[in-house]
Amino acid sequence: MIHFSGVSFQYPQQDCVLSDISFTISPGEYVIIAGTNGTGKSTAAKLINGLLLPTEGEVRYKEYRTSNEQELGTIRQKIGMVFQNPENQIVASTVYEDVAFGLQNLCLSPEEIATKVRLVLERVGMLDNIHADVDSLSGGQKQRIAIAGILAVEPDVIIFDESTSMLDPEGKQQVLGLMRELNRKGITIISITHDMEELAEASRLIVLDHGCIRYDGPPGKLFEEDYLSIPGLAAPFAVNVRDALRSKGIPLPRNLFCMEDLVDGLWKLH
Question: Based on the structure, what is the number of domains in the chain?
Answer without folding.
Answer: 2
